[in-house]
């Protein structure tokens, strides 16, 4: 589903390489120290920043030159996922048509998808009137409407409290399995990775390492992961 | 990236178009005037006197404004008192105050017939006379002391409050704080402020027209006006315009190099908590400074208001069409300003991350009008369009266009940071959703920049409403604007009517600014 072929991203002094792939339906967590390039990798896959060398294949086609909106991915950021001046319904509707010229049928789809994420009847609200968790649900609803096979999340729940975060992770897990999506999630919290992912890629020392099975990896952490987790002495 | 470069081509074209148009407006018109003149003539003694006077008054105005602004800004930065916000707002008022109204107010306070003059005479001194050098400098300080104060205040508030806390912890007194925190800040802010004020005073026209004049108090811009209006000496006008261009270009480059970019209208809210300056002497000094500043700004304004109210019944009926003409010119100018500034600012905001030099060049085109002579722009347009259109019908459109060009630097200063912020915060989201072109502007950009656009349009409308510049060239009695009418009333010593017209003018300018600024903010979601 996702194949990074000799990928190199360079921005000034910063560089990151990756050379691995992910199967359809797999759930990948990307973990590693902050500033290591986790978000940069996601932005490159989404087409928001240019790559220096290598190719990005998505769903069997070379996506390296595609504009962001043409790539078969949906990306949720940590913030600025919604336009604060547009209502919840209009924010979601942008997922169907970026100029918002929707038919009545399409507006009904918007209402229906809001029900799916537990926000029934809130279409007319402004984002400012919602809680942080509700706002990310709106963004998820839009991602659902876009029906892109790869869902990418860039620490979208980092600002939420523990209970709310676990609720949102459950919702994501359910959405991913119901819609048979491939999930790529950046997190700095190893517990998130344990809960939702079946493979983990560690980003450290300018390399995004090939994904390994979550359970095995945490059971026998290699040196770099142990260092990141603070487990070297055990 | 390739695809991104392709998708912005159409809007970038509009930006380059606007930049080209502005460059042609500033430089092309100068060329037209020089061509028509068939060459440049030499400068005579009077011209040299005008150049000397221009530089001298601009230097004096800049030095006085900057020197007086330092204690005012320091007092505002370190004191919390009731009415502080009001005083800071008052410091913004001269910016949209029509020059001719301010001149009338200053004459009412410091003129030969003022209360101060009466008092001086009864004490055996001579009456004040502010025509000439002193009056020109006084008016320039009236306009630029508030500007300098606001810029310095921004500098003061940019010093992190932790530094003052640290200084207090180390037991520093006011002198130590001045040496370690305040003087380094002033060293960064002062040169740019000085150069900016010098620049604004070099091209001064309306102040020199009303308070100066004669061989000993003529600015270059006024000399250009006289060359056109009284001698129709195009070659002299073009030569003087070149001299002025050179002077302003030097000052503009200095101002630009010395200025750290600061955003308009940010963070005047909270004074920093200070521990070092609560002695009786410091408190008294600050109180005195602020009281005098408030009086300096308020007295002329109060005089305009009081005398204006008394003068309203004396207004001739012809004031009505003049006011309507001015409103039409102001609205057209605001519209033109936005139509030029929006595509230009958008292109600058988008090019600057990848191609900073190109973005700098585009921004320079927007600022060219500061260095250009409005008189020359107006005359150049007049000469160029003369064969095509009836000249009598050109006065108002040309005035609106020239005013728009003059407002553009301020519009760009407001719009570019706003556009950069939108692109930084919401650009990735819009890219990933595929929002492009008009839909992107309508759904993402415009709702976010509406407050900045409203502010820019309000400023453009107010500046145009009060402008007494190019319109004076075409002094056609049937096409007079309100400021020109006010000038004529003053010239024919109908002071009651002039005072009434001044109040009407300042009311309309403020109303236009308020209306646009308010319109931009209303229901603007945060």
Uncertain residue ranges of chain A: none
Number of spatially distinct domains of chain B: 2
Share in helix of chain A? 25-40%
Give the overall silhouette of chain B: globular
Describe the structure.
The complex is a heterodimer of chains A (234) and B (526). Chain A is of the alpha/beta class and 234 residues long. The mean pLDDT of chain A is 90. Chain A has helices spanning 38-46, 88-93, 104-116, 132-146, 162-178, 190-196, 214-219, 223-229; strands spanning 2-11, 14-22, 27-31, 53-58, 61-62, 73-76, 150-154, 182-186, 199-204, 207-208, 212-213. In chain A, a hairpin with a 2-residue loop joins β1 (2-11) and β2. Chain A contains eight helices and eleven strands. In chain A, 34% of the residues lie in helices and 24% in strands. Chain B is mainly alpha-helical and 526 residues long. Chain B folds into two domains: 1-36 and 316-526, MetI-like fold; 42-306, Orthogonal Bundle (MetI-like fold). Helix content of chain B is 77%, strand content 0%. Chain B has helices spanning 2-7, 9-37, 45-78, 84-96, 99-110, 115-122, 133-158, 161-169, 174-202, 206-211, 220-229, 234-258, 280-311, 319-351, 356-371, 374-385, 395-433, 437-465, 482-491, 495-521. Chain B starts with a helix and ends in a 5-residue tail after the last helix. The model of chain B is unreliable at 1-7 and 262-267 (pLDDT under 50). The chains are: A alpha/beta (234), B mainly alpha (526). At the A-B interface, loops of A face α1, α17 and α18 of B.
